[in-house]
Amino acid sequence: MTEKLKHSKRDEDIFVKALAARRHHRLAPVVLLLLALLTTGGVYAALAPSTANAETVSTADIETGKKLFQANCATCHGANAEGRDGVPSLVGVGAAAVDFQVSTGRMPMQMNGPQARAKPAQFNEEQTAALAGYVASLGAGPAIPTDEQVDAELGDASNGMALFRTNCAMCHNAVGAGGALSEGKFAPALWETSERNIYQAMQTGPQSMPVFNDANITPEEKRDIVSFLVEQREGSAGGNALGALGPVSEGLWAFAIGLGLLIGAAVWIGAKSS
Amino acid sequence: MAQQQRPTAVGKAADYLDQRTTIGVLVKELARKVFPDHWTFMLGEIALFSFIVLIASGFFLTMFFDPSMALVRYEGEHPANMQGQLMSAAFHSTVEMSFEVRGGLLMRQIHHWSALIFVGSIVLHMFRIFFTGAFRKPREINYLVGLTMLILALAAGFTGYSLPDDVLSGNGLRIIDGVVKSIPVIGSFMSFIVFGGEFPGHHIIPRLFTLHIFVIPGLLLALIGLHLFLMVLQKHTQYPGAGRTDKNVVGYPAAPVYVAKMTGNFFIISGVLTLMGATMAINHVWNYGPYDPSPVSAGTQPDWYILFVDGALRLMPGPGWEWVIGGYTLSMNLLIPGMILPGILFTLLGAWPFLEARVTGDHREHHVLDRPRNRPVRTGVGVALLVAFVVCALAATNDLIATHFSLDIFAITWALRVLLVVGPLLAFWVTKRICLGLQRRDRELVLHGHESGRIVRFANGEYVEVHTPLEPEEVWLRTYHQAPRPLDIKPAMDARGVRRKGYKSDRRWQRLSQFFYEDRVEPATPAELAAAHSHGKHDELEAKTPATSGSAVRRRR
C-alpha cells in the first residue's frame, strides 16, 4: 500500500512540473480536473478497505479457494456465497472474516447450536488463505491485519484497558475471561485467542459480536486492546488468579480451601481430647 | 514438697498485679471453668480469630489508604494497564499500596480472605446454633447478639468491598443506590443523604471508610465482648451423652486444656489465612479499573455473603412490577428482592427462638443440645431457608453457570425461579421425613438392639435372630429427649357456656403448634424398654442359651 502511495506521489511531481510550465494553457482546467480525480481516486484506493492481500493471493489460489469453498462451504452459504435464510451471504465480508472463522475452527460449523463453537481448525494455513482470497475476490471487505497491526509490544495496554472496559468487558469480563449472553450464546474467554484473531473479531463482528470498525475504534486502539489482553496472560501479582472470575470463584475457594482447612483443624483439635 | 520454691519472675509479676487488682480471683474462676469439647464449638472461634486477623491487617491498610474521591492521575509504573489513568485518590492508594508498599498486596489479600472466612464461619456457627437448639432459654439474648453481629459482619464486608472505588465496588454501590431509592416516599431522600447528593457524589467513600474502620468494628468488638461474657456466664451448651444433663457441664477446664487448644487454633487460623493471602489472588482492582458509572463487566458479582440479594434481584421479573401511583413510581421489582426478602429472612431468624418457645410451651432452661433429628420441623425449616439462600446465591452466578456448563442463561433463570418456590418446600418435606425416619430408627434400635448377625436354631427347629442390646450410653443418647406435643388450650366456652376471650388467638397458636409437633416419634420409655427386653420367649431363650444372656431377642418366623 505504501508503495502505491509513493508511486502516485511521483506521478504527481511530474504533473506538477509540467503544469508549472504551461499553467495558462487552455487545457489546464481539464488537466486540473483530471488531477483532482486522480488524487481522489488514489487516496480512496489507499484508504478504502481493499480486497485483502490482493498482492499475495494469486489467481490460482483464488481458484483453489473456490474449489475448497464449493466442497466445504457451499452447502450452506450457496454456490456463489450468496447465502440463504439464516445463513449469511459472504459477498463483501472480506478476508479477515474468513480467516477468523476458519482459523479458529468455527467454520465449517460442526453442528447447529446457539452459536458456532471454536474447534481445531479444519484447514491448514494455505487452504485458509486460499479460501480467504476467494471470498475477498467476491467483494471488498476488511483485509487480514498485518503482523505489525496486531503486535502487542507496540500497543498501549493502559489505553487498551480503558477501551476494553468501555466496549468489551460487559460481555467478555473485565480481563477477557468470557461471559454469558442470551439463550445459550456466550462471549468466549480470550486467554488463548491469537492476537490476529482478536483484531479480526473486532473488525468483522463474528456471530453476536458487534462490528467495531476503524472509525469506531482505530487500528491503533485495536492494537492497544490486543496489548491489554496479552498483558493479562502473564498472570497476576499476588498468586493464583483462580480463573479471574471475580468474587464468585473467590467465595468458592474461601469455602473449599479456607474453611475446609480450618474445619479440618477444628475436627483434629476437637478429636485430640475425646 | 521437700523445699520451698523460690518465686519466679513470672510469679513475682503475677503477685504484683494481684495485690493491686485482685485479678487472681478472676483467673482462678476462669481457669477452672469447664467447657465441653466438640469441633462445632470451634466455628465461633474461627470467626473470633479471623476477626483478630482482620483488625491487625486492617490496621496496616489504614496506614496507606486514602479515603478520598479527589481525582488524581496514576504515575506509577505497575501495573502497566494503570499507567497514566485518571482515578480517585482511594483507588490510587489501593493500587499503590498493592505495588509500591512492601507487603501491601499480601496484607490486602489476607484482609480480604479473612473477611470471606469471617462471615463464612459466622454463618456456619449460626447453623450449628440453629440446628442444635442452642438458642433456647436462657440464650435467646445471646442469640440476638450473634444475629446482630452477623448483620454487622455483612455491613463490614460490604463497606470494605466498596472502599477501593473500582468498577466492581462502584457497581455494587449503584445497586444499593437503586434499592434505597425504591423505598416508598423516603427512598430518593435517603439516597441523597447517603451519597451526599446524586450518585456517586464525592462523599460516599469517606463515609464508608468511617463506618468500616470505626463504627462497625467498634460495635463488633463490644458485641463480641458481650457475646463471650454471656457465654461464660451461662456456661457452654453440651451435646447429649451419658451423664450430661441440663444441670451440669461435662468437659475440661479452661486452663490449661483450652488455653493450649485456643492458642494452637489461633496460630492455625492466622497461618491458613496468611497462606491464602500469599498464594491466592483476590480482588485485583486494577483489573476492573477506577470507578466510572458507565461500564459493567461480565462476571460482576458481590462477595459471596451478598450473593443472595444480588441473586434475588436477578430472579425478580422486571416488567409489570413497577407501578406508577399518583405520579410516584413504586419499584416492586427492586423493593421485593432488595429489601423485603432480606427483611423477611432476618426477621424470621430473629423471631425464631421466641416463636419456637411459644409453640412448644417451653419455659425451662436448656443446656443439653438437641440432636437435629429430634426437632423435625425446626431442622426442616432450617434446611428450607438454606436451600432458598443457596438458590438465590446460585441465581447471582447465573452467567458463570451458563458459560461453564454450556447452559442457556434464560433457562437457568427460569429453573431457579421455580426452584426458589418449590425447592424450600421440597427440602422441608424431605428433611422432616428423614428426621422422623431417623427417630423411628433410634427407637427401633433402643427397643430391639443391634443386629448381631447370629441366628440361633432351637432343638425344635425354631430359628431366632439374636440382637445385642445397646450400651447404656447408646440408650441415653437415643432416649434423653422429650418429643414436644402440640399445645393444649382451654375450650372455646367456659363452664357457663360463655365464649372465652382470647380463644381465637389461642387456637391460632395451637394450629401453629400442631404444624410443629403433630408428627412426632416418642422416645422409648423405660417401661417400653423393660417390656421389649422381656417379651416373647426371651426368658426361655436365656435359660437355654447362656451365651446370649441379657440379649434382646426378636422372634423371626
Oligomeric description of these chains: heterodimer
Evaluate the radius of gyration of chain B: 30 Å
Biggest sheet descriptor of chain B: 3 strands, antiparallel
**CATH superfamily assignment of the largest domain in chain A?**
Cytochrome c-like domain
What's the topology here?
The complex is a heterodimer of chains A (274) and B (557).
Chain A (H helix, E strand, L loop, with lengths): L1 H20 L6 H20 L11 H14 L1 H4 L16 H10 L21 H14 L18 H11 L1 H4 L6 E2 L5 E2 L7 H10 L14 H14 L14 H27 L1
Chain B lengths: L8 H13 L1 H10 L1 E2 L7 H20 L8 E3 L12 E3 H11 L4 H29 L7 H23 L4 H15 L5 H9 L8 H31 L17 E2 H26 L5 H4 L18 H9 L6 E4 L2 E4 H29 L15 H21 L1 H7 L4 H40 L1 E8 L5 E6 L3 H8 L23 H15 L8 H9 L3 H7 L7 E4 L2
Antiparallel strand pairs in B: 1-4, 2-3, 5-6, 7-8, 8-9
Helix pairs in contact in B: 3-5, 3-10, 5-6, 5-10, 6-9, 6-13, 7-8, 7-13, 12-13, 12-14, 14-16, 16-17
Subcellular location (chain A): Cell membrane
Subunit structure (chain A): The cytochrome bc1 complex is composed of a cytochrome b (QcrB), the Rieske iron-sulfur protein (QcrA) and a diheme cytochrome c (QcrC) subunit.
Keywords (chain A): Cell membrane, Electron transport, Heme, Iron, Membrane, Metal-binding, Repeat, Respiratory chain, Translocase, Transmembrane, Transmembrane helix, Transport
